[in-house]
């Protein structure tokens, strides 16, 4: 048994390898920290969850905020305006973009020791968060999404500013990655990445379960799973969460099966030529997974442009609501995949709250005959350093997992 | 010689690390330090090597708790070793300053110098070289100030007055509505003050959120969200989207304002109906 | 003759005006009547009050200040809300009995002739010292848990409407007993209506 510490994954985790000679025959991921957010929520006013839940995570707290607002809306049975919907998607897409950029450079490029332009990367991240904050007030830890809509009330001036910032972000992204036009002609940092992995003979390692799941719906994705090339709609009630005795993360399955969630799962829903090219060539390997995360930046920045052009400022930011008690479950896309929030509200107070994070899907601990995606991707390898890199290709969020 | 920096994380969500990455001048700012360890940025040391680090500045993010594993060591022991060696300790974010939000679950979690508003057991040992930059998270420019300046003036909670002498109310774009006691008619409106109904704690919370803008562009209150008082030891309070009142009178007064003075002024201000402040700024004639 | 200062003179004029308004009615009494009662010229009186409306406003401010100061004094006492209610009721009735013109002016002139006070005396402005103290009384009662939390005006209306009604009955000569006879029961009624039953 060999235990490695995995750090700089929004916290830490331990990898417990079982080896036979040099070969890794089994691996378990253990998260040592627990902060009790679900317990903190019990007994609080339902709306207080809008302030507490973003604090689950410093990098994807905005997804937790929006999940909370959507969950209360599903319990109150209200629909928000198209304007509020578009603004929420803009800010959530921003959070996903800054996430992918940080992961790409500070984790993957750092790990592979590929040189990069820190200043441009950083400026882009700060700009994305600025665009986000233009609507949400601040990032991290805003609470601007509330049941009924968004608290902001933008004017045409804000939209003009937003468009200017967005255009600057797009030009920076071009500067970093090129145009994403031809998968056979990767440019700039994408080319560097390809060449590095190619030189190390790593393009095809880390192949996972080839089972993908997305649980939410928005203007970008649908709630579908892909199993044996077949797409089927997903329903939250088939999710099962199972506690583990030696880790603070819970295992999670859909219809008793492990799945991979995240950008690759999202992108494989659509016949997208760019990602299909890599998927056909390298399957769901480390390289395809990395490319999918970076490529999604390009997709989302265009979505934001579309949304900024579609907002009707005359619509209400917040619709009138009537608070209700009840039970609900919703899913929303965070950077790392589908995030699920469930709750029971009684007399306006939280009776029970449960959060399932994307990392739980990808990093569950199965058995050797029923492995999770990460276990499948690692078992059979010889080199623990490569295993470590494959872990990082899933973009792990320890703080989320151990809420 | 560049100052050697270690950024240590305790019980945290990483929010301050990520907030710090929003510092507009980060690239050049980082050139002035030697980063021994930061949980996100390229560092000279690994977490496992941290017990041997010898930092000039120790940044602490997240609450302290004995028994919290940190690589092969205990968070508390690691903190003690590094803090004793450091010339300055910069405590960043309300978890590290007061214990913070996760203390709601685990009472054993404390801040470095304070446990909520009470002085901690570490106060006497470290207060002479420690400054507190609370906030959930702290603003990147506050953190940069904390890292760079050692000539600041500190208040009773060891917060630099340069950042925390003003209230969040100061500089809020809704101030005119506060002056004339025009409350916001609901959420999602740029008109109206959020202090009377929506729970805004801006008038009695120390912080420069509306004088040093977030992400260089905005603030909670400007975007219609109430201030939740996250820079204070009382954070998080309950019922955050409602103003606590006693027979319609706010339970907490603006900072330092006697109740009698406040009620006299508000009674008078409310007696006038100012048409301009009672209609939409745009879209209505 | 000892010279009295301007403020003293103003007070004298206000007291005289209050008496006349109370006896003859607000609209019946002219500035000339007041001047005559004080043995001063109309021109001189205008040095103190530029119009009858201006005098009317100063009067309400003056009364509000007198009442406010007394309630403030009660608010500062280390008493329960229940005991404070009794003190306020007792003081209010005592004033109504000893200086009926004061309370009458408030009820019959200020509240009945809002158009006179439309400019410069809107809303709470001229009664602010009095209302502020009532607010503080309520706020402290709720904060300590003794009184029930509710909208300020529901509580204010109950309190002042009740007291006003009793003073009105007294003024009409309809009360079989001296008004101070009712202090105990009325204080108890108000307390029971406002107290926190949780």
Structural summary, described in words:
The complex is a heterotrimer of chains A (403), B (285) and C (198). Chain A has 403 residues and is of the alpha+beta class. In chain A, 43% of the residues lie in helices and 17% in strands. A three-stranded antiparallel sheet of chain A has the order 1-2-3, with no helix packed on it. In chain A, helix 4 packs antiparallel against helix 5 (118-136), helix 6 packs antiparallel against helix 10 and helix 9 (273-282) runs antiparallel to helix 10. Chain A is globular and about 65 Å long. The two termini of chain A are 28 Å apart. The model of chain A has no long low-confidence stretch (mean pLDDT 95). Chain B has 285 residues and is an alpha/beta fold. Chain B is 22% helix and 13% strand. Chain B has nine helices and eleven strands. Chain B has helices spanning 15-20, 26-31, 75-85, 94-98, 123-126, 140-148, 161-164, 175-179, 259-270; strands at residues 3-9, 33-37, 57-61, 69-70, 73-74, 88-92, 114-115, 118-119, 130-133, 245-246, 249-250. Chain B has a five-stranded parallel sheet with strand order 2-1-3-6-9, with helices on both faces. A two-stranded antiparallel ribbon of chain B has the order 4-5. In chain B, a hairpin with a 2-residue loop joins strand 4 (69-70) and strand 5. Chain B starts with a strand and ends in a 15-residue tail after the last helix. With 198 residues, chain C is an all-alpha fold. Chain C has helices at 6-24, 31-37, 42-48, 52-75, 81-98, 100-110, 128-143, 152-171, 183-194. At the A-B interface, helix 1, helix 2, helix 4, helix 5 and strand 5 of A face helix 1 and strand 4 of B.
Strand order of the largest sheet of chain A: 1-2-3
Shape of chain C: elongated
Tell me how many strands of chain A there are.
Answer: 13
Catalogue the unreliable spans of chain C: none
| Largest β-sheet summary of chain C | none
Largest sheet composition of chain A? 3 strands, antiparallel
Radius of gyration of chain C: 18 Å
H and E order of chain C: HHHHHHHHH
Shape of chain A: globular
β-strand amount of chain C:
under 5%
Annotation field: number of helices of chain C: 9
Helix content of chain A: 40-55%
